[in-house]
Amino acid sequence: MTDYQLIVIGGGPAGLAAACKAWQQGLRRVLILERDCELGGILNQCIHNGFGLHRFGEELTGPEYAGRYIAMLAETGVEVRLDTMVLQILPGRDGAPHEIHAVNGKQGYQVLTTGAVVLAMGCRERTRGAISIPGERPSGIFTAGAAQRFLNIEGYMVGRRVVILGSGDIGLIMARRMTLEGAKVLACVELMPYSGGLTRNIVQCLEDYNIPQYLSHTITDIRGHDRVEQVVVSRVDDQRRPVPGTEMVFDCDTVLLSVGLLPENELSRGAGVEIDPRTRGPVVAENRETSIPGIFACGNVLHVHDLVDFVSAESERAGAAAAAYVMAGESSPAPAGTEPGEPIPVCAGEGISYTVPQHLSPAVRTAGAELFFRVRRVTGPAAIVVQDGAGNRVARFARSHLAPGEMEHITLPAALLARAIAPLTLRMEEANP
Fold it and tell me: Contact at 8 Å (CB) between 115 and 5?
C-alpha cells in the first residue's frame, strides 16, 4: 500500500480547496506539503477585502478567506506538514505509485509514495533581472508582492516616494496601500497601451486616489548609488521601443515592480509534465489532469487567475478528479486514451492568448465543458466564436467588453460538443464600428 492516496503540493488556496474536496469525495490518506510555516499561501499578506464574493457570497479579506478553508480542513483528517520543501517528483509508470522527495527540520529527508498528486505551488513574480531595466542596482527596488509582505506582515515601510512599474493587480493594490500608509505614489507606469489589472482595481486603487497612470511608457533608467534617487520614464512606440525626447524624471526613493506573474513549475518540469509555452503551466484536460496520469494541476501553477474564488472552484475540480482516479485504480477519465475515442484539442485562434484546458476528453460529448481563456487586446463589443475542425461555428458568445487583464470563461453544453469535429478553435470577433 502507498503511504498516501493523494499528496497535495502547496498549502495555499488551491491546495486547501483540492485537499478538502478529495476528502469529501472519500479519500482518507491525504497529505498537504507546504514550504511555509503556516497554511494560506499568498492570502496571508493580502489584507485588503474583495475576496469571497463568488465562493462565500460575502466580501472577505485574504486572511479571512484562507481562514474559512483552514477551518474546513480542520474538520477533515487531512495531514499537513509545514516547513517542508518538496525537492522532486518521480512519476510512477505502468500503474506504479508516484514518489515525492521532500525535506524538513523534523523528519529530515523523506521519500513518500502516493496514488495521485495535485500540483498547487502557485506562482511567482517577475523580477528586475527578467525585464532588464538599465541603471545601477541601488536599494529601494522591490517586487510589489515583496513590498506587500514587508508592509502587511513584517511591519516595514519600504519607501516614501514611490514609482510603480507595471499595472498588474498586486501593483495597483500596493499603490493604494502605500498611499494609505502615508507614502506618495508618483506614477503607475505601464508598457502596454492598456492596464494589466482588473477594472475595479484601476478605479479603486488609482483613480480614487488621483494616482496618474502612464500607458505605453516604461522606466528607461534608475539613478542612485546606495538608494534609488530618481527614475527616468519614457514613452514607447508601437514596437515597445523608448521614444527619444519623451523622458520624464521622477524624484523617488522606491520602485515597485508589478510586471507579471509566472506559474511555479520547476517541480512539474522535473517530473516530465508537458508545459504550455503560453501559460507556462501544465497542459491539462478538463479534469485538470496533466500529461502524466495521476498528476493534476490547479490554481496559479496552471495559469494565473484574477480571483481566488475561481482558484478554489478549479482546485475543487482537480481534487475531485484526483479522488476519482485513485478510487478507480489505474483507470481514469484522463485524455491519455483510457476512454473510447480521441481527445479533442482546443486551440487559441485570432485574438485569443491561450485556453485552459488545452484539450478535452471524449467524456465532454456527454457532460459538456468549461473553457477559460484570455484575449490579446482591449475591445468594446465583441464575440467569442468557437469553431470546429470542419469550419462549423459551434457557438458564439457576445461580450460588451474584453481585456487581457480579465480572465474569461465560456461553457459549452454537451449537445454542441456531441456533433463537433475536432479540433475546437476559439477566436475573437470585434463588432463592426
Answer: yes
Rounded distance between C-alpha atoms, residue 8 and residue 324, angstroms = 15
Q: Is the pTM of this model over 0.90?
A: yes
Contact criterion met (CB below 8 Å) for 343 and 394: no
Predicted local distance difference test score (pLDDT) of residue 34: 98
β-pair partners for 162: 185, 254
Residue 314, Cβ density class (10 Å: 0-12 exposed, 13-18 middle, ≥19 buried)? buried
pLDDT (tens digit per residue) in 139-185: 999 999 999 999 999 999 999 999 999 998 999 999 999 999 999 99
152 and 170 in contact (C-beta within 8 Å)? no
Q: Which of 23, 21, 27, 11 is nearest to 55 (CA)?
A: 21
